[in-house]
Amino acid sequence: MDILVVGAGTTGLTLALQAHDHGARVRVVERRPEPFRPSRALILHPRSLEVLRPLGVTDALLEVADTAPTAHLHLGSRVVETRLADLALPDTAFPHLSLLRQMDVETVLTQALADRGVTVERGTELITARDDGHSAWAVLRSAHGIEEVRCPFVAGCDGPASTVRSCAGIGWHGRPYAAEVVLADLEPDAISGPSGPSGPSGAQLYVGRQGLLFLFPLGEQATWRLLATRASTGEPGQSFGQPGAAVPRAEVQRLLEDAGLPAGIEHLAWSARVPLQCALARRFRQGRLFLAGDAAHNYSPATGQGMNAGIQDAVNLGWKLGFAAGRFSGESADVPGTDVLLDSYERERRPAAHRRMILTHTAFWAEASTGLIPSWLRAVAASLATPAIPVLLGQRRLIAEALRVISQLRVNYRRSPLSVEGTPRLRGAPRPGDRLPDATVSVGGPPRRLHQLLARPGVHLLLQRDAEGLPDAVTGPHIHVLRLTNSPGHGLVAVRPDGHVGFRCGTTDQAGLVGWLSLIGAAAPPPIRP
Fold this sequence. Notes:
CATH topology of the domain at 3-66 and 99-172 and 279-366: FAD/NAD(P)-binding domain
Strand order of the largest sheet: 5-4-13-14-15-12-16-19
Number of helices: 13
Distance between the termini: 35 Å
Radius of gyration: 24 Å
CATH class of the domain at 3-66 and 99-172 and 279-366: Alpha Beta
CATH architecture of the domain at 3-66 and 99-172 and 279-366: 3-Layer(bba) Sandwich
Structural class: alpha/beta
Strand content: 25-35%
Largest sheet: 8 strands, mixed
Oligomer: single chain
């Protein structure tokens, strides 16, 4: 075993898949005997679909997703509809939001692991983990007893109350919100007219003075999943981000009424209050112990960052651990240069997490704060702006740009030690650290989409039409070479397994390329000359 993954939510499952597909032997443990329900996340962003595509799971996810969702915005007596499909995003194969439950994502990822021979060990709890400077050690408890294991790396994907984070001694900087979320699966009374749910084909958003109320046709025990915000009830002993005590029917009814939804509750299948916090781990790595997803950062549900951010963390860390594991001959050997690769995870993902925290905090303030200004914005300003909202929502480019920001399509790692400029610099190509945009290309045949050609694990070397051939040193099971015959020039772009550009050069800088491949662990390091 190279990597012990602690936690089998979307983050842990994605990390295990990514690491496995890049050469690591993985083991996944989960303390819960059954998958966690109910689903808390309901939206998958375009960038998440992009990074999951090389793992071979995207088609299965899209089969169970609503990829052409509509949203009905209720502003008093007026209802504004907007379509969230086929937005003006020409550089991605997924120009839409995808509505699907977290449980469906986990089902697909779990099956993909099983197809690779990796079984999630449920009912197995991490008791403690440590790094002795040479290896990681973990103590596990299951129905079979206590087990101590040794491996190169432990990845903590075990949520806000992370045991791995606690064992690593990593601080947790943040604070609780004064507002909380109420979740419920319910059947409202049948309502005719535009003021209520129009059927299970679109999400409903109600803007009220006390906060926003969402109804998604994605319930697990009833048609509709309710998500509403209200002032925190402050019940002690509750884990942040985890569904807790049931909410009385009368309180759920009051939330509907406060949001301007004149509907009774025909059936309330379940409900729960969810206390929230805004928090960020001070480190994402301590030696051989790593944090990802909710173990590293905790957000409000505004803009749907939680599940998607965890997937992005996992895809970033997974290939690095996979390649790093390949550098080890035995579980305790250190290889020079490995720390640069492993440190890059925190260097890249923690700043991205901090920026998302600002985004979600601002959005949640507008959505849920009961302060004078946000309450006025929801109750008065939104109503006054109602005539202009259809015009704004009709601006597809405006919606597309908002989606770019929300879905992390604009995230870059330009300051990463893994982002390297070759000599001479290649003009007109994405910079090292940037996400590689999708485009139409030719590789000696009919036009193809670039991301389709890159939809397999590994590093992809894109040669321009007139570029020199590559040296024999540029070989390996995870290195793939494509010559773009519709791109004149002598340059090269190297694309990381997570779809970000890592290296570029205007002519084939063989020494620079071999050095970069060695840096990331995709090729053997060059020999040390006396």
